[in-house]
Amino acid sequence: MKKALKIIGIILLVLVLLFAAYVAYVLIRYHRIGSQPIAPEGTANGTIETGTEYKIISYNIGFGAYESDFGFFMDGGDRAWAWSKERLDKNLKEIGTVLQAQDADILLIQEIDIGSTRSYYFEERPYMVNALPEMSYTFAQNYDSPFLAYPVTQPFGKARSGLMTFSAAPIASAERVELPIEEGFTKFLDLDRCYCKNRIPLPSGAELIVYNMHLSAYTSDGTIAYEQLEILLNDMQSEYEKGNYCVAGGDFNKDLLGDSSKYFGKSDIEYTWAQPIPDSMFEGRNITLIAPIDEKKPVPSSRNADGPYHAGQYTLTIDGFMVTDNVEVVYANVVDTGFAYSDHNPVEMHFVLK
Q1: What is the domain range of residue 133?
Q2: What is the pLDDT of residues 13-23, one digit of tens each?
Q3: Same domain? 13 vs 41
Q4: Under 8 Å between Cβ of 226 and 72
Q5: What is the count of structural domains for the chain?
Q6: CA–CA distance, 169 with 138 (Å, rounded to integer)
């Protein structure tokens, strides 16, 4: 009996030591990337001028994994990884085809992996570049997390992902601007956050500043996203006061329609992060929130990935744009893909620089 208890004790001690070593690894490995300049790549021959209508697309591609039958473990589903390497490759190519078909002047793409367990360590940037040739582009890494050993059956693992911005006109310079995140345990789930600030020169000497963002979602109460948005709004206002034009777009992780259930029906599921943005955030600023919607035929921009896409699933619009007062918005809507390739639909906006 004593020998058996001793063996059990040794096993328990080893398990405790292994767990302690893993916790130490996560704490030591955790880091923030920080704000930093980004070198634009690619070749573009287009121009951006005042008085001309342009089209911008924003699309969170869900690292290529969120096909219509995919459910993510942090949303109530049962998967942490894409279904397979073969399906991931096929889906990324389909996403590239969708982006190419939009024939947009500017594209903002979120959740592009560059070496993550969840996407079999695929380098996903070439899929986007091949689909959008002859465009200038930048990549801002959003996060670089240590290996997360949860869920046990399919560990989320290491995550390295970011934001890509494409432009038919040359991007002169860009920078990654770090955003605040929650402290405590949630920082390991929400990873890191930033926005990418891209400068496109105009013939007049002014600049079009294009912001690509993906705000926090997996947090305790969702308020950190408001702090992140406040920083972005201050940045846009400052550039506007310098005489520049500002267009921001991406995944806000907020209910941009105020109450999406009015358009898409109510759900028993409620998320602390999916709250409306207070009107007060725009008071005293020359900035307008643009929520894409066709009132006669509304289409949501995002679905809850608690399982395969189905009728009655929680849907809302969390993807959209913001513009300064010197930008006229002609049209904004959701591109209906039926969530075939991501848990998001692309959103589009047509605009004119005044």
Answers
A1: 34-353
A2: 656 555 555 45
A3: no
A4: no
A5: 2
A6: 12
